[in-house]
Structures are given as structure tokens and as C-alpha cells.
From TrEMBL:
Its cofactor is FAD. One of its GO terms (cellular component) is ubiquinone biosynthesis complex. This is 2-octaprenyl-6-methoxyphenyl hydroxylase. Its EC number is 1.14.13.-. Keywords: FAD, Flavoprotein, Monooxygenase, Oxidoreductase. GO terms for biological process: ubiquinone biosynthetic process. The lineage of its organism: Bacteria, Pseudomonadati, Pseudomonadota, Gammaproteobacteria, Candidatus Reidiella. The keyword Flavoprotein applies. It is an enzyme of class 1 (oxidoreductase). Pfam families: FAD_binding_3. Pathway: Cofactor biosynthesis; ubiquinone biosynthesis. Residues 8-344 form the FAD-binding domain. Component of the Ubi complex metabolon, which regroups five ubiquinone biosynthesis proteins (UbiE, UbiF, UbiG, UbiH and UbiI) and two accessory factors (UbiK and the lipid-binding protein UbiJ). Belongs to the UbiH/COQ6 family.
Amino acid sequence: MVETQNSYDVVIVGGGLVGIALACALGDQPLRVAVIEALPFETNRSASYDDRTIALAYGARPIFEAMGVWQQLAADVTAIKRIHISDRGHFGAARLDCNDVGCEALGYVVPSRCMGEVLMARVAQFDNVELLCPARVTSLEQDEHAATIVIEREGEQQMLRSGLLVVADGTHSAIREQLQVAVDRHDYGQRGVIANVTPSRHHDNVAFERFTDSGPMAMLPMDESRCALVWTVSEARADELLTLDDEAFLAELQDRFGNRLGRFEKVGNRAAHSLMQIVAQEQVRDRLALIGNAAHTLHPVAGQGFNLGLRDVAVLADLINTAAVSGEDVGSATLLADYAEWRRNDQRYIIGFTDSLVRLFASPLLPIKAARSAGLVALDLLPPLKRWLTRHAMGLGGKLPRLSRGLPLQEK
Ligand SMILES: Cc1cc2nc3c(=O)[nH]c(=O)nc-3n(C[C@H](O)[C@H](O)[C@H](O)COP(=O)(O)OP(=O)(O)OC[C@H]3O[C@@H](n4cnc5c(N)ncnc54)[C@H](O)[C@@H]3O)c2cc1C
């Protein structure tokens, strides 16, 4: 039997980093919000050498400040002051420096566990946000008036009605599939091997992006002199790297990365993620919007996936709030069209940039190898080009919503 229905202004399916960030942004607003999450909301509080990390673009900071969570996060973040981009075995390197753009950092590295904990603690403070979990969506219908969602929770079926349904259920979004939203999918046939490593030389707050003939590797600065490694390799190579003992793994890493950080001395647990790009061909429909990985999953080479999702959040929250305070419909076709339009350029740029980076540096063709070396040199020598690229990668390009300018959605 389906229980009586509950009415909400916004229902968010998926309480991952992006979904929960939207719930935080909408906290304390004149809205009734629900988050449906398949897994129990639990966080692992034990500190570990192997914290998974996210590189936050500088533009994430004002958003988190305006949401009132930056102070809590600040204890766990490591600033990226410089980025060093190089192509193994080829001349040319590019260096991006926070001083060139007048910011105290180009970005920040934060363990995703810490970010999850901080966002969860924040969302729990809001009376207008309900967390429905563990729960799963069993059916969904929408028309121009509302979205109707049936969920199963604790063995009971519950019907919810909402003015707006936000789909944030990740890369393999079941809701996206159920709605038969077409996607552009590209499987890179690669996996990202991730691990924390400790080099003998301190990272000095430099993030390294190193392209090698077997795939790109990112080395991000962390606390306690650790670095977070994301090493992109073929499927077969990933299996090999996972089974090597620590000493052999560190030797392979040293060979590929070189000696910029001295000797690699310690490695934590290793894991591998399949790498693909999945982009939904439609991000809005009657009464619904797809955001985060459900809308666009990227190769992690440029560390932009979560950042792009967070900017979806900032824009959507801005539009929802503007509608709500003026008594307008928060799920109207106009609002959703405005959302899609506002997000179009940033998404296109970041998706195209990330995909081109993977393909360009994977090419074995000599003219392309020569061109990319020349490109790195040109980038290093052309300050205006470098500033433009840096500002976009920092999430500071285009028209910025209130949260991205560090302003709360509503003045108190
Ligand atoms: C190796 C690697 C390194 C990365 N590094 C970076 C980086 O440095 N910087 C960066 O910006 N990004 C990075 N990313 C990308 C980033 O991790 C993702 O973009 C981000 O976590 C996506 O968040 P999300 O909330 O959209 O999706 P998810 O984190 O996948 O969350 C989806 C949520 O929905 C829930 N869910 C799923 N199905 C249902 C359902 N039917 N009903 C209810 N709930 C459901 C899930 O349980 C989950 O909690 C990296 C990714 C990888 C793989």
C-alpha cells in the first residue's frame, strides 16, 4: 500500500557530494526540500593514510563560504599554489602560479570523506530539509504541473509530489535510464589508479600534472607531506599495478614520474576506477533537472568533475531561490530553460577541455607530440593565455551566480 503523499518544493534523488551540496545550499530557504539516498547516511570517521581526495577549484571556496561550510573544511584542505604540467620525454612544461591571477591559491585538495562529513553535519542543521534514506525510487512520473515519485523506505511505499525533481544519482543514474535520457558515452578503456604516496621532498603546495606515453598522472599536495596520486593507465596495466608489492609499485611510479619530488618512500592502499565520459543529451525536462555526475561524468585528468557539479548547484540554487522569494514556481519550464542556458558554456568548455586533454596527450603521432610540446611552451610564455586558461580551470569564468561570488542566496 502506498502511504499518503507528501508535498515538497524540491526533491533531490542522490545524496552524494553534489546532491547534498544542493540540499545545503537550499537550507534555511522558504522551501520544503527532501533528499532521497539509496545508502544509509553514515560517514567513516577514522582518519586514514588513504583518504580519497578531491581537487577543488578555487571557485569552490566562495561557494562553500556562502554555504557556511568553508570554515569547517578549512582544517582539512591543502592549498594548491602552483601547477606544473609536463610531458614525459619531451621538452616543454607549463607552470601556473596563483600569484599570476592574484589569488592565495589555484585550488585546494580535500579528502572526500572530510567534505562528506562537513556537508552532512551542515544539512542536518536545517529544519526545511528532510533526509529520506536508505530509500529507493520505485516509480516516477512528471508532467508540466509536478513530479510524482514513489519511494520504498523501511519496507513501506511512500508517494512524494514535488515542484522540482533534481536527479543527482551519479554516473550510472538509474533515474536517467528510467527516463530514457540519451547520453554521449565514451569509454576511454583506461583506469585511474589512485593511492596516497609520500615522497622524500615536500611538495611545496605544487600539483603536478604529468603526461606520459602510458597515460597522464596527477600528483596532488596533501597534508603530512603526502601526495594524492591519480595515475591513468590501460585496463591491463591497472591490474598489474594493483598486484605489485609496494616496493615494485614505488619503483614503477618513480620511473614514470621522475625525481621532481625526490624518492617515493611510502604508498597506501591502491584502488582503480574505470574512466569514462558520459554526458546526458538533455539536462532538463518537465519539472526535472539532472546535475553532477548524472548529467556529466568526466575523466579525472583535470580534476573538474565535482567542481562542475558544484557549479550546477550554485546556479540551480540561485534560480530556485530567486523564484521562491518572489513567490514564483521553482520548477517552471522557464526556470529550467534558464538553468540549461546558464550552464551550457561552462559545461561545454570543461567537458571539451578535459576530453581534448586526454586525447591530445594519448596520441602517439609525432606531429601531435611536437605540437603539444610547443603548446606547453607557448602556454608558459603567453601570460594572457595562461591567465584565461587558469581562471576557467579555477571555475571563475563566465557569469557567476551569487554563491560563486561568496554571497548567501538571501541577505538576512
Ligand atoms: C579517480 C577519480 C578522481 C577524481 N578526482 C576529482 C578531483 O580531483 N576533482 C573533482 O572535481 N572531481 C574529481 N572526481 C570526480 C568526482 O569524484 C565526481 O564528479 C563527484 O563525486 C560526483 O558526485 P555526484 O554526487 O554527482 O555523484 P556520486 O558521488 O556518485 O553520488 C551519487 C549518489 O546517489 C546515490 N544513488 C544512486 N542511485 C540512487 C537511487 N536510485 N536512489 C537514490 N540514491 C541513489 C548514491 O548512493 C550516491 O550517494 C574524481 C573521480 C574519480 C573517479
